[in-house]
Amino acid sequence: MWIFEVKRSSQKSRDPMQASFFTNYSIDDDTHALVREAIQNSLDARSKKETHQPVRVRFFVGTHDAGSKIMDSYISDEAWKHFNAFDNGLKSPPTRADDCKFLVYEDFHTSGLIGNESATEPEKGNSFYYFMRAEGQSGKDEGERGRHGIGKYVFPYTSRIRMYFAATVRESDSRCLIAGQSVLKSHSVDGVKYTPDGWWGTKLDCGIDDYLQLPIEEESNWLRLKQDFSLNRERTQSGLSLIIPYINDDVDVAKLGEHAVKEFFLPILHNQLIVNIQSENIDF
User: Is residue 165 over pLDDT 80?
Assistant: First the structure.
């Protein structure tokens, strides 16, 4: 289910600004930012058990017709109120009557999002915390790519509703965790003010007016996600699968391929990286 937190009077109204870091001379377009940051993260998450294997990443572009009702399982009527709120910062968000063009990004021979998924403070090596709970923080060491904690913003930024789902099989314990997020502006729904962050998953009550968002772990959710979005990952393969629904119109396989080659031709040539790019009728 989707969880949006009601804004308390003591909290600031927030307009997350991480996207501004990608509008500079070194980035050609939004797809360029996505490819560069995604693959950099995957290379840094290389498996410690399969060091002889190249990291493999996969981009897949697909579409769900609105008439299929597939997205109804992931976005409720109540959630659509948030994605279509007039003050949420989205310029031209889709509605549930629109087809859903989506992007899947998966990496293999990587560790997945590891660490205590209930942690609410930084922990060394807890990539789950830094990816799902932190803003402007990074758990990476000196010399690693993407140390400013902003690269992950390319995933919601690629979506017209600033949303993604993350399904990770963890090398550390073989568990499969699924969660989703959306990053809007502070916004109002039915006269109630909400914070920017939406969470798809479950929650643990932590006392009066307090709770902790947690991922879902049921096998049935994994199997549905795998089928609905054509994931290649098997439950025995550690790594991260990201699903970005309602992607921007200019994201296509040609741009994905162009930027992957430009940015990562050396690790590809040295057999440190394999990149697969697919759509319903293209595979290369």
Answer: yes
